[in-house]
Write a structure and sequence with these properties.
Layout lengths: L9 H12 L2 H12 L8 H14 L7 H11 L2 H8 L8 H51 L4 H6 L36
Length: 190
């Protein structure tokens, strides 16, 4: 519907303009996006940029500075919003809100790095402890059997009857003296 421009009011012009150039479904989708905006995995800077972009498309949702600050606080991740909103007084301007959010994001990132560093140190300590315990067990095993594989090779060379054959008659046997080989590591006979 085309009207005479001279007879139109400003509101009539805006209505005509919006009807012609804005898709109502797209506008509704943008309004919904603005109402549900959350920081998620975005940085504070990215989230503020997205917030400003949507606020320009939906100015009627943020008519006052207080409303902008409230909506921005709702947008931020809880761990950031808590830091922004705590303190002697809550932020009253968007600039103050953004400044506090950036500071909170920085501090949280530092804390995360410290935790990761401590975790890696603990992991490294645990690994070294396990390795040391393994080495101690190996050393204890070597002490109890200093001959190592040499013992296994010479085991069958020992004198004496170690045969567990049950078919033999059980009669007293002459006791043999077992002679142990000399250990190459410690010099003792085992």
């Amino acid at each position: 519907m085309r009207r005479n421009v001279l007879e139109m009011t400003w509101n009539d012009f805006i209505q005509e303009f919006n009807d012609k150039f804005y898709n109502r479904m797209a506008m509704k989708a943008q309004q919904n996006e603005f109402n549900n905006i959350k920081q998620g995995t975005m940085s504070v800077t990215e989230a503020v940029r997205k917030f400003d972009q949507l606020a320009r498309l939906c100015p009627h949702f943020v008519l006052t500075e207080d409303e902008r600050v409230r909506r921005m606080l709702d947008m931020f991740r809880p761990e950031i919003a808590v830091v922004i909103d705590s303190g002697e007084k809550p932020p009253t301007t968007v600039a103050e809100c953004v400044e506090r959010a950036l500071r909170a994001e920085y501090r949280l990132a530092q804390a995360k790095q410290e935790r990761a560093k401590l975790f890696e140190e603990k992991k490294k300590e645990k690994s070294q402890l396990k390795q040391n315990q393994g080495n101690q067990l190996n050393n204890q095993g070597n002490r109890s059997n200093p001959i190592g594989n040499h013992f296994n090779q010479n085991h069958n060379k020992r004198k004496g009857n170690f045969n567990g054959n049950k078919n033999q008659k059980s009669h007293p046997q002459k006791k043999n003296i077992t002679v142990f080989p000399t250990c190459t590591k410690c010099g003792k006979k085992h």
